[in-house]
Amino acid sequence: xxxxxxxxxxxxxxxxxxxxxxxxxxxxxxxxxxxxxxxxxxxxxxxxxxxxxxxxxxxxxxxxxxxxxxxxxxxxxxxxxxxxxxxxxxxxxxxxxxxxxxxxxxxxxxxxxxxxxxxxxxxxxxxxxxxxxxxxxxxxxxxxxxxxxxxxxxxxxxxxxxxxxxxxxxxxxxxxxxxxxxxxxxxxxxxxxxxxxxxxxxxxxxxxxxxxxxxxxxxxxxxxxxxxxxxxxxxxxxxxxxxxxxxxxxxxxxxxxxxxxxxxxxxxxxxx
Length: 272
Prior knowledge:
Its EC number is 2.7.1.35. With 272 residues, the chain is α/β, with parallel strands linked by helices.
């Protein structure tokens, strides 16, 4: 069984972060390990929402996984601080991992900051050059590009070209906030591929981005090409959104079981 790693935050509600990644790994048939960078939950008195782990704790997790389990592919999610980003970047320079998926998590579903100010330069300069593929959504792509607004599929393509210059091999810009079909663009520096799936009319999409990048990681670990891994991941997430699990107080989560329930041939993803 191929072995995967997620380096990300733990989401107490279970729909995103480490929890979403491990569910995705399990559903797609790879063995998942995790290095938790922070815990995301709201304290009832202080209202604090992010509790980062010490660098020693994160380093110990990475060391244990690399030396005792092995890693065929990994992804990063919420790293939050400049120091954590630099720790992970330095560690990546010491290990041999064929595929690295960077999900540049910056904002929560309702706009909550999931990366502290001052960490952007470390993300760009130190982490992204390690990436096989980076997977920003529209707000993250806009932030990485200095506030440039994305309002169309053409804008997604322009953003992918600009983001590719940061050093990653592939860029996947996710256009979930556009009108019409759920459109993403995949760019390798030469070829631009547009992916479209049916748009599901729901607010219950918590964990969709985390699960998308985790599904790509699983596919790459199983020796799919980047394009094949992205296609499979888009089907996986679309199925999960279609079977979303609603919560009463907040937006609900995608159902990670749905891909097996519906089967990959039931979700149509067109490629242009």
